[in-house]
Specification:
By secondary structure, the chain is α/β, with parallel strands linked by helices. It contains eight helices and 14 strands. The protein is globular and about 65 Å long.
């Protein structure tokens, strides 16, 4: 019998949550657990693609968490299924782990994969989660398991089906989302939280986005679009400098065909601010005290750090138009 995959798009939507990156993190643990966990479905082998499927996957943090963005792109360009792997508050290294470019190396007790399905708390020698805001399925050796995060930098690990306890040949936790989306197309909007969280930086955002680009050769095959950052109303001049640096590096590395300059999109009256979703509104960018440009307030949510539905419609339109000739059915 062929293995069955439970698509993340069938899980409860997180698109209506208004999130800050760390301040509301712990307050959202219960809600986000519903949003990203679901019930794992047993499988012992990596899933095969059904004939005719064209997978489109989102990766990153809360900016790309609203399902409406990629659902619009998928509908316009003929993708099915559209899977939503972006998670609130993720840093770039957490996104990279889910993408399959940085497998967590688990410290399993006595190096054993347990036979039972009870969760056990473990650490990973190469990854410390920032917040308990995501979980995903994968494999340790050939055993299908689930990995969830706690709010104190560890993981809860459990196998999905009971079986025989056995030593782990490798303690690497291999991502099921990566396996499911292997031959698909991918949109990355990742790493903005690296500019906020201690221990991360513009450098880690750039490095890990490059590593994600390289997974499965997807970037070289023209199957990845990288989205740049935009200056929120909470970003001061120093943060704006970091944003400009990351955007400049993305533009250089990925080129005009596979990089979308969201800062330009959301501040240019001749481009995004006159695009079909907002064509009749006469929008103009906001000028910050230091002279930098920010999107019109009509496109920004009440938290001043995420786009509202109208802003997300502009981004969805831009992704669709940029990739129509390359990714269209």
């Amino acid at each position: 019998m062929s293995p069955v995959h439970r698509s993340p798009s069938s899980r409860p939507s997180i698109q209506n949550l208004t999130l800050t990156r760390r301040g509301l993190g712990r307050a959202l643990l219960g809600a986000s657990a519903l949003a990203v966990s679901g019930t794992a479905v047993s499988m012992t082998a990596e899933p095969a693609r059904a004939e005719g499927e064209r997978v489109l996957a989102s990766w990153g943090s809360s900016s790309l968490a609203p399902h409406s963005i990629l659902d619009h792109v998928g509908s316009e360009l003929g993708f099915y299924p559209v899977v939503h792997y972006a998670r609130p508050a993720q840093t770039s290294i957490e996104t990279l782990a889910m993408r399959g470019g940085h497998d967590p190396l688990l410290d399993l007790p006595d190096g054993m994969i347990p036979g039972h399905t009870d969760p056990i708390e473990v650490t990973a020698s190469n990854l410390r989660p920032e917040l308990s805001l995501y979980g995903y399925e994968g494999w340790v050796d050939d055993v299908f398991c689930r990995l969830d995060t706690t709010d104190h930098g560890t993981f809860m690990f459990h196998r999905v089906d009971p079986g025989e306890a056995k030593p782990a040949v490798s303690t690497a936790f291999r991502s099921e989302p990566q396996a499911f989306s292997r031959n698909g197309c991918h949109v990355y909007w990742m790493g903005k939280n690296d500019l906020t969280f201690d221990g991360y930086s513009a450098d880690t955002a750039i490095e890990n986005t490059q590593r994600a680009w390289d997974v499965d050769g997807a970037g070289a095959d023209g199957r990845v679009l990288v989205l740049g950052y935009w200056r929120t109303f909470l970003d001061d001049a120093a943060r704006a400098g970091d944003i400009a640096r990351v955007n400049g590096e993305y533009a250089t590395r990925f080129g005009p065909d596979f990089y979308l300059d969201v800062q330009h999109l959301l501040t240019d009256p001749e481009w995004g601010l006159s695009s079909p979703p907002v064509a009749d509104m006469g929008l103009q960018p906001v000028t910050a005290p230091d002279g930098g440009l920010q999107p019109p307030r009509e496109l920004v949510g009440e938290d001043n750090m995420h786009l509202n539905d109208l802003g997300n419609q502009v981004v969805a339109w831009a992704i669709t138009e940029k990739m129509r000739d390359r990714w269209g059915a």
